[in-house]
Amino acid sequence: MLRRLPDGAQAPTIGERVKPMVTITSVTPYDDHTLLIELSNEHSIIYDLQPRLKTARFSSLNNLQKFKSVKVEQGNTLVWNNLCQLTIDEIFDRIER
Q1: C-alpha closest to that of 88 among 15, 53, 37, 34
Q2: Strand, coil or helix: 9
Q3: Is the pTM of this model over 0.85?
Q4: DSSP H helical segments within the chain, as ranges?
């Protein structure tokens, strides 16, 4: 089914990345290396980072103080200072598996 775009709206061009409809509004880290991720659509995700702490990318987050330094950046990325980051797309990909 095809739908018309609202007046003034432009369709993305081929290869242009479409911004996700949902954004991250807040994140709360817990001692068990899980994250409570609150979304703009009023849903929440509990994301368990424990299995990923064994990878080189996330191993520095074994340190609980570093893990708890997580911040939301631009509504679509979780960032741990200069250590690593996790995008909303990656989070949704993991949930769908």
Answers
A1: 37
A2: coil
A3: no
A4: 64-67, 88-96
